[in-house]
Amino acid sequence: MENERETLNIVAVGHVDHGKSTVIGRLLYDTHSIPEGAIDRVKRISKEKGKPFEYAYLLDAFEEEQKQGITIDTTEIQFRTPKRDYVIIDAPGHKEFLKNMISGAAHAEAALLIIDANEGIQEQSKRHGYILSLLGIKKVYVLVNKMDLVGYSEKKFLEIEYEMNRFLNNLNVYPLKYIPISAFYGDNMIEKSENMPWYDGKPILEAIDDFEKGKGLENKALRFPIQDVYKFDARRIIAGRIESGQLKVGDQILISPSNHVTQVKSIEAWVEKDRVDIVKAGMSVGITVEDEFFNKRGEFISHVENAPLVSNFFEANLFWMGKQSLVENKKYKLKLATQEVECEIFAINKVIDATTLATNDEAVVVKTNDVAEVIIKTKESIAFDEFKNNQHTGRFVLVDGYDVCGGGIVSGLVKAIATVNKFVKENLEVNVQCFDEYYMLLPGQDIQKFTRHPRVYTIGEPLPVAGDTYSYPTSFNLIDLENQHVVKVRNSKFENLLSLEDYSYEPVVHLNTLGLTIKLQSADDYQRFINEYKGLSNPKRKDEFFAKQWLNFSKYRSIGFKQASKLNAEYEI
Ligand code: GTP
Ligand code: MG
């Protein structure tokens, strides 16, 4: 439709009490977007509380209306300018803001980051700036509010602009405008303020019309996550919401991760007159397909030539809000679009303090309010996109019990895993490949070894003694013949690392650095083994006879199967 009006969603963020709700209330008030009754009520309540008129209370009127049946904890307010319609999202607190922004419950394309001129930049001003950068929201105005409290000082305004830019530019966020305002007194809200003649920009109401709206979702690749499959007379109707792209009858489609290809037979409608041949992003639809595979909730429908990624490993930027710290190897539930799957944090690569941007590469836990770069491993392969390519299918939340305890965005597939796993103690070091996996790649049927995400293990750390294609006893000694070291593992933990010279035989399982079993039953065996190794003409050649006599691949190891195309996604081969 030609005269369909454009809508832009804007989120208001900032530290507690810096004036988010007042900015929005004032915009509503000044654009006469508020029913008279609500204004009278706010006047009354403000008076009762002995305060001047509180614009922030105007939002309560909206909030109450929204309370019924709504699942998100933000208030969405609508108003319009001659140019377009706006939805402004106000989150009552930090936690709600995080949850809604990261989960995508609140979709925003642009942001107003509000800073109290008097209090200056605070912790949450920075955290919120960080989240905007993570979510790729580049359309940002910084509103320096409560200018009345600093005598409308240009100097103060410029100081905040300078300091905030220093922080945000580091995150690749370059605010498009800084606007000095007093939301309470209406300075630079809908009209230019006479109190700040030094400011030569636009007031907020005009400035927001300058935000450019991004390309429509319907022009992106098709993503249609299946919500449910209904049996309806003889038909199976696949239902869900089209998150992006378009779909029409006759299209060849791919269903991921099950990897089936079929064609769209029909797009269903309740009544015949509503029947259409093409559906687009934002619509909830039901379709039937030519080949009735067993499709299930969670799978993605896409076009064949523009498929989502499929893997059970991916890299993510994660925000942690759980009361308990996030730890590696604990099971969480991951929800991404309509998929729900058990997952664990395979590796914590880096923890970032969102206020100082200090990073810690050694961290083993992620504490409440921390941000981290992690590798997530899901129990089964799932379909997803990189967040930068698709915001709807590239974000996820983690659930611990019933609580959303974290959320994040997919930054990519796991990159080439080049380095090896290591045990270190003081200046001793043992490189091992015992935690690598062996797969026969289908359909080519070559066997290849894949290195688990490299870790440096220090004394006392728990070890992945069981993987996909290996399962060692919980206690063993690992001998590095080449470099003459022994690693002792007890109760699945790294207990000690010593030089082979200082080692005397112990009656436990012995493995080599590849994770092959060394056939040792006694101290005598051990002595013979060491002597024979020393007698090898070129130990580095790993003599075949020696290997046959002493090594066993299959005692604790096996070879798995993998679709070559999928491995490509997990590891760069
Ligand atoms: P939370 O939702 O609690 O995070 O706060 P908020 O950011 O929504 O702040 P809110 O709009 O509720 O404003 C906090 C207080 O600051 C209120 O008492 C406002 O009246 C006051 N305030 C807001 N803007 C201005 C301003 O421009 N000047 C002055 N002097 N006070 C202001
Ligand atoms: Mg508020």
Instruction: Output the strand order for the largest sheet.
Output: 2-3-1-4-5-6
Shape: flat
Q: What's the total number of strands?
A: 35
Cα Rg: 30 Å
Q: Oligomeric state of the chains?
A: single chain
Query: What is the overall number of helices?
Result: 10
Helical proportion, percent range = 10-25%
Low-confidence stretches: 65-72
List the ions, cofactors and other small molecules found in this model.
guanosine-5'-triphosphate, magnesium ion
Largest sheet: 6 strands, mixed
Structural class: alpha+beta
Polypeptide structure, described:
This protein has a six-stranded mixed beta sheet with strand order 2-3-1-4-5-6, sandwiched between helices. The chain has a six-stranded antiparallel beta barrel with strand order 7-8-13-11-10-14. With 573 residues, it is of the alpha+beta class. The protein contains ten helices and 35 strands. The model is unreliable at 65-72 (pLDDT under 50). The protein starts with 6 loop residues before the first strand and ends with a helix. Bound molecules: guanosine-5'-triphosphate and magnesium ion (MG). Magnesium ion binds at residues 20-21, 56, 90, 92.
